[in-house]
Design goal:
A twelve-stranded mixed beta sheet has the order 3-4-2-1-5-12-11-6-7-10-8-9, with helices on both faces. The chain has about 350 residues and is of the alpha/beta class.
Length: about 350
């Protein structure tokens, strides 16, 4: 398999292209793993000129990317012209973002890339084009089923050296979470997390902390019945399968340093319960990792930032972390999950 990472263009009108160009210029100082960009070479050359960056762009086939990376930014053409301007998505935006993801998955499944790293997309732009998936994570699962005939449950992990969190339900209105959070979903998610932390992160017996849904994990039923009726049976089932799971735990006491040292990953009931603590700890360098796939996929944990696209002011820390983590996770047992691991 190639040792090169496939990096998707993301939303062309966002900061993804800016960050990609900027970090390639610092590739030696940052000791970055080699990567190629799935996108439009002419578009990237134009964005480099706009930013005043001396970045030679080379159109390559994926197998040639590693040797090209030393002297030019290797770009594998997605055969779509991109015309979007910084901060202004247009009709070329969604087709380019979608095709780049599709090509990245195809490349890693055929061994042309080690892992897929995805620049941020704008979901509203994709939805306006008729895109049917809730987001990146679900689309990756659809592509795996389509290309590999394999049904997978993708699991979103947010990782930084201090904390790893999984939102069991993701992009749902808060009022829908209690109905969506089931014992079966918790058990299936816990199994995937335990397996991938063992295979990808090299932890022989991952410690999984399961957050309660309600304040104080339900306070013995006085603040809701879901923790006793839904969460606790899931924890017991995981324990019966030999998985080191504990909970339900009160979420408000799970994320201080002493508590974090007691587990490797936290399973949280809903989006903000997971993302608020990790974005507080590591707003600029947290990484989004998709578990449950037959390959490694990471992404910076930020959006498209249309307001600063094309300005050169975007912080590349999260993309740098995503590339480094993708390279390390591609080699099993290569990285600890969190500070407490």
């Amino acid at each position: 398999m190639s040792k090169t990472l496939a990096l998707t263009i993301g939303e062309p009108a966002g900061i993804g292209p800016d960050l990609t160009l900027a970090i390639w210029r610092q590739r030696s100082q940052l000791s970055l793993p080699p990567f190629y960009v799935l996108g439009d070479p002419q578009f990237l050359a134009r964005r480099a000129r706009l930013l005043g960056l001396d970045v030679p762009v080379a159109t390559v086939d994926a197998p040639k990317a590693a040797e090209t990376f030393r002297t030019a930014l290797p770009v594998v053409s997605i055969d779509r012209s991109i015309t979007a301007q910084p901060g202004r998505p247009d009709a070329s935006s969604a087709p380019a973002a979608i095709e780049a993801i599709r090509r990245g998955v195809a490349d890693v499944l055929r061994g042309a890339a080690t892992a897929v790293v995805t620049n941020p997309i704008a979901k509203n732009v994709l939805y306006q084009s008729g895109f049917q998936e809730p987001g990146h994570t679900e689309y990756l699962a659809t592509l795996v089923a389509e290309m590999n005939g394999l049904a997978v449950q993708p699991v979103m992990l947010l990782w930084c050296p201090e904390l790893a969190v999984v939102p069991v339900t993701i992009h749902l209105p808060l009022k829908e979470v209690p109905g969506a959070l089931t014992t079966d979903l918790l058990v299936r998610t816990g199994r995937i997390v335990a397996r991938d932390f063992k295979i990808r992160f090299g932890i022989a017996r991952p410690r999984i902390a399961v957050a309660g849904l309600n304040p104080h994990a339900g306070e013995e039923g006085t603040m809701g019945s879901e923790d006793a009726a839904v969460v606790r049976p899931a924890v017991k089932q995981l324990q019966a399968e030999g998985i080191d799971a504990r909970g339900p735990l009160p979420a408000d006491t799970m994320f201080h340093p002493a508590a974090r040292a007691q587990y490797d990953v936290a399973l949280c009931s809903y989006h903000d319960q997971a993302l608020i603590p990790i974005k507080t700890l590591a707003f600029d360098n947290a990484v989004n990792v998709t578990l449950g796939l037959p390959f490694v996929r990471t992404s910076p944990d930020h959006g498209t930032a249309f307001d600063i696209a094309g300005s050169g002011r975007a912080d590349p820390s999260s993309l740098i972390a995503a590339l480094r983590l993708a390279a390390r996770l591609s080699e099993p047992a290569a990285v600890p999950a969190a500070a407490g691991a």
